Structures are given as structure tokens and as C-alpha cells.
Amino acid sequence: MKNLIVTAAGLSTRFEGLKPKWMLTHPKGNWMLVEALKTFDFDSIDKVYLSFLQEHIDKYNCLDAIKMCISELGIEDKTEIVLLDKQTNNQPHTVYTVIKQANIEGQIIIKEVDNYFTYKVEDGNYMCYYDLNDTTSINPSNKSYITIDEEGYITDLVEKKVISSTFGCGSYSFETAVDYCNYFEALDNWSLSQNNNLFLSDIIHKMVSDGYIFGIKRDENIASEFQKIFEHDKGYKFKAVQSKDYIDWGTKQDWFKYVRQYKTLFVDLDGTLVKSSGKYIPPYWGQTEGIKENIDFLNELYDTGKVYIILTTARSSSAKDVTLKQLEREGIKYDNIIFDLFHANRTIINDYGTSNPYPTCDAVNLVRNSNELERFLKDLGK
Q1: Domain limits for position 292
Q2: Digit-coded pLDDT (tens) for 185-214
Q3: How far apart are CA 133 and CA 331, in angstroms?
């Protein structure tokens, strides 16, 4: 039995002034909750448990919205919503509470809600990782790092200290819920006595350790109930499973940096992408050549998948056929086109707020038929 536990029951303290992070709207229109899970390997999962704080459900009246998210993910038949009455001490405590409250048995796979990546679900104990060399968009100081042996198993794991280029990226698997709970109970008691925060990586670290507990030998200052669990001396093997396409939304800054990569561009046609033309005197609409530098740059933005391009024009819709042929001939990529605009000033009006900070719209004026589009938009989509 493979159980997926999605942890969305934190206070989102790193997103001060905003709604719970899992409710933030992705540029594509979905909540972060959906974007974080949209390509997860649900076919390999028997049961999904989504955990939330009851106070968030009450405050934002969002239970129906969560059900809508579940429907969008196509997992209605295997999902249970677990509502926690009070805040837990940390993420491992949340997982433990969900296991006990929902009576979960068998393998548990944990997925965080503030990141996106893909991987194939496997059996047994493992931890997903990503390589620093494959990304430039994360803060290295807030990750857990692992070392991996030749057989692909984790040999060491350290929180918030770079000991290798491979870091845990937000999914953890434990072969049995019982093992997880046993280790959590002992480590939780110890961490509370030491006033230390507890991470999932700490539990994995202990399960693969060879007799040391956070650098202290078993027989030194360890509570008897804590020591008892580890007297088997067998240790546990945790496989390191490589993930792909990692995106980090772990902090407010990470989220807004990511969101700013997305844009909707309203781009005039005549004099901007193709040489200016007219209705009454030549060159007529559809007859002029493209402005290559501007077209090439716009096409690059289109290919990122993060820029939605709407062409705008004062050309009459009666010129639609010749216009579309011209766009195809010049190789101009776009998502939509609007005809019949006034041959006059154009103004964009958009709102802004805490979840979509000022400014939320910009304006660019180009000299007619110039090739300077990239100079004005060079940082777009990066």
C-alpha cells in the first residue's frame, strides 16, 4: 500500500502578509497546490492524503476550492482531506499527526507543496534529490545536502550545510508508517528536550546512521526510550532518487522571482514586427517585410512557455486573411490577435495587491520600424 501525504498544514511564515502559500495563484491560473502536484506519479499511489489546518479552511472558506483542485488533478477517487485542529511543531510532526489521525498503514511518500519536480515513485525508503549544477535559481543555504555511494544509497545527510552538490528537493519515502512513527517519537522527544527544530532529513539521517545520534554516541546522555529503538544496529538503507525539472517556491522571494518570469505581451503589429503599411496607399496591409531582430527576439520569448503574446492592430478584420498569411510568411509566433483597434493611444489598466505586487503593467514606445525591441525587454522571461 503506497500512501502519499501532502503537507500543506504550516503557517507559511516565510510568506508574511499573504494567504497560505498553497493558495497562491500561479501565473497559469492554478493554485500552487495544483502546480506542485500536477505531474506527480499518482498512478503509482493507492491513497492520497492532503493535510491542512482547520483554521485556514475556516478563515478562507476554501474547502470547496480544495475539492476543485483535487478534481483538476484527477484524483477524487483516491484522496482524503485531513484537517488538523491545531498547528504542529514542524513538518515531521505534521506527517506523524496525519498518519495517526487517518490510521495510515504501509509505505508513506511525503511531498512538499512549495516546489515542483518530477520523478517515478518507487518502493521502499528513499529521498528525492536534485543537483546544484543543474539550477541557478535556488538559495543553497536553506537546503539539506546528501552524499551518495556508488550503489545510489545515501551515506550522509546534513541540514543547511553544503557537503555536496546534491540536495533534498522535497519528497521522502518511508517503507512503513510504523518505522516512521517510531523514529519520530524518539527524535521528537529528544529535539524538544534540546530545543532543536526537527526536519524530515533528521529522521532519515538517524535511520541510516551507524551508531551516532546528531554527533553523540548512543550511550552518552540519551534517554533510555530513545536508545532502545536503535539497539538493533542494522540501520536502514535509503536510496537517493534523482528528480527532474525542479522549481523552488520555498520563500516569498522565491515565489515572486518565479512569477515575474511570466508576462502577457500586447504587441502592435505594424511598425513593430513588420514594416509599417496602410489601407489606402502602398505598401498595403500584408505586403511589408518583417523586422527580423524584433521577430527573432519575440519568438525566443514565446518559446520559453512563460510569455503569452497577443498581437494588436488597427487593421480591419476584413484584412484578417492577408494578415495571417503575412504572420505565417514572416514566421511570427503568437497566441492571439486582436483586430479593429482604434488608430490611437492605447492604455493598459491592471490591479495590484500583496499577492501580485506593484507594478503589474508596463509600457514601451518604439520608434516606428526600429529594431530595438530587445533593448527594452531584454530581461523579460529570465
Answers
A1: 261-377
A2: 989 877 766 667 899 999 998 888 733 333
A3: 35
Average of per-residue pLDDT values in the chain = 90
Note whether residue 382 is domain-resident. Answer: no
Q: What integer pLDDT is reported at residue 193 of this predicted model?
A: 61
- State whether the Cα torsion 224-228-234-240 is positive or negative: negative
Cell numbers placing 339:
483586430
State the DSSP string of 211-238: SEETTEETTSS--HHHHHHTTT------
Mean pLDDT within 94-112:
98
Do 357 and 256 touch, CB atoms closer than 8 A? yes
Domain-located, residue 31: yes
Task: Identify the pLDDT of residue 45.
Answer: 98
Find out whether 351 and 341 touch, Cβ atoms under 8 Å: no
Query: Tell me, what CATH number does 40's domain have?
Result: 3.90.550.10
Same domain, 167 and 286: no
Grid cell at residue 351: 490591479
More confident residue, 187 or 379: 187
In angstroms, the CA 251 to CA 310 distance is: 31
CATH code at position 303: 3.40.50.1000
* pLDDT tens per residue, range 314-342: 999 999 999 999 999 999 999 999 999 99
pLDDT at position 219 over 90 = no
In the predicted structure, residue 229 carries a pLDDT above the cut 90: no
Residue 102 C-alpha cell reads as 487517518
What is the distance between the alpha carbons of residues 308 and 316, in angstroms, rounded to a whole number? 23
Are β-strands 216-217 and 212-213 bridged in parallel, bridged antiparallel, or unpaired?
A: antiparallel
Number of domains in the chain: 2
Q: Are residues 230 and 285 in the same domain?
A: no
* 25 and 117 fall within a common domain: yes
Give the residue from 87, 104, 118, 75 showing the smallest Cα distance to 174: 104
Residue 229 belongs to some domain of the structure: yes
Please answer whether residues 381 and 304 qualify as being in contact, where contact means their C-beta atoms are separated by less than 8 angstroms.
Answer: yes
* Residue 304 to residue 368: CA distance in whole angstroms: 27
